[in-house]
Amino acid sequence: MRHFTNVKDLGNLKEAVQEAFEVKKNRFAYKHLGQDKTLLMLFFNSSLRTRLSTQKAAMNLGMNVIVLDVNQGAWKLETERGVVMDGDKSEHLLEAIPVMGNYCDVIGVRAFAKFENKEDDYQEKILSQFIQYSGRPVFSMEAATRHPLQSFADLITIEEYKQKERPKVVMSWAPHPRALPQAVPNSFAEWMNATDYEFVITHPEGYELDPKFTGNARIEYDQRKAFEGADFIYAKNWAAYADPNYGKVINTDRSWTVDAEKMALTDNAYFMHCLPVRRNMIVTDEVIESPRSIVIPEAANREISAQVVLKRILENL
Ligand code: CP
C-alpha cells in the first residue's frame, strides 16, 4: 500500500481485520520494519487519540516520529495557489510540503473541513496536495471528508464484539452545540457499506449525508424505530451537508440524545462513539458508563488500525 485515505486502499477487509488481530496479539513482532525510518505527523487540527495512538503504533514498528502542530510554532501556511501573500501567512504549502518530505519517509496528515467552501472540502485539497507534492507515502489522520483510521478501528471493534454473523449496526446523529465535520460519519458509512452488516443511518431531516458515502444504507428518520433490534449503536454528530446549510448547525434537539430508554429498544446493543464526546448532549452519563459501552476498547483499537496501515506502508517502501 502506498497511500491510505479510504477503505479501498486496504483491499480485502476480512484480511485486514485478521492482520489487525495478529498485530494485536504481538504488536512488537514487526519492529524491524521501521528501523531508520521516520514518520512525520502533521496536525492542522487538535487531537488526542490520533496523535497518541499513531505515535505508539509507529514506535511499536521501530520508527522515529516527528510531530508538528502546524498552527503552533510553524509558519502560518497559505493553501490557495494564486493568492498575493501580503497577509499573515508566511509560507506556501507548495514549498512546505516538499521540504517536509525531505525530512521523513512517511507522512500522516490531519486537516479537517474548513466549512468555507463545500467543493474545496470535498475535493480534499490539502490531503491531495500532500500526495501530489511530498514524494512520500501519505496517510489520512482525518481529512475533510473521511477518517479512515477511526473507521478501521471501529470495524475491528465490531468484529471483536459481535455475537451475530451479520449484526445490525445503527449510526445515529445526536445533538452538539458546534458544527462538526462529516468525516467520521461519511467514513463509517463507507466502511459499513463495505461489509455485509445490516446498516441503518438515523438523523433528523436536513442532516442527509453525501449519497456517495451512504450508498444503499437504510435512512430512517425515526430514531426509535432505527434502534429496534440493533446490535451496535454508533452515535455521532455532524453539521448539515446539504445546501444551503452546508457546515451549519440546524438542529440541537436533545430528544436525539442517546439515553437508556432508547438503548432499551435495541437487542442489548453495544454503544460506540469515536470520542471526544459531549456527555448529556450526544449520550447520557448512564449509557456511556454502562457495561455495554465499548468506547474505551474502541479507542484502544486506534493503535491497532494505525499499526496495520503503517506496517503495510513500510512493507511497500
Ligand atoms: N477519534 C479521534 O480521532 O480522536 P482525536 O480527535 O482525539 O484524535
Secondary structure: elements and pairs:
Blueprint: H1 13-25, E1 38-43, H2 49-60, E2 64-69, E3 77-78, E4 91-92, H3 93-102, E5 106-110, H4 118-122, H5 125-133, E6 138-140, H6 148-161, E7 168-173, H7 183-193, E8 198-202, H8 211-214, E9 218-220, H9 223-227, E10 232-236, H10 260-263, E11 270-272, H11 285-288, H12 295-315
Parallel strand pairs: 1-2, 1-5, 3-4, 5-6, 7-8, 7-10, 8-9, 10-11
Bound molecules: phosphoric acid mono(formamide)ester.
Label the overall shape.
globular
Q: Beta-strand level of the residues, as a percent range?
A: 5-15%
- Helices, by number, come to 12
Spatial sequence of strands, sheet with the most strands: 9-8-7-10-11
Give the ligands present. phosphoric acid mono(formamide)ester
Low-pLDDT stretches are none
CATH topology of the largest domain: Rossmann fold
Number of domains: 2
Given helix and strand content, the structural type is: alpha/beta
Task: Describe this entry's structure for a reader.
This protein has 317 residues and is an alpha/beta fold. The protein has two domains: 7-146 and 302-315, Aspartate/ornithine carbamoyltransferase (Rossmann fold); 150-299, Rossmann fold (3-Layer(aba) Sandwich), CATH 3.40.50. 35% of the residues lie in helices and 15% in strands. It has a five-stranded parallel beta sheet. A four-stranded parallel beta sheet has the order 2-1-5-6, with helices on both faces. A two-stranded parallel ribbon has the order 3-4. Strand 7, helix 7 (183-193) and strand 8 (198-202) form a beta-alpha-beta unit. Helix 2 (49-60) crosses helix 12 (295-315). The longest helix is centred in the C-terminal third of the chain and has 21 residues, at 295-315. The chain is globular, with a radius of gyration of 20 Å. The termini are close together. The mean pLDDT is 97. Phosphoric acid mono(formamide)ester binds next to helix 2.
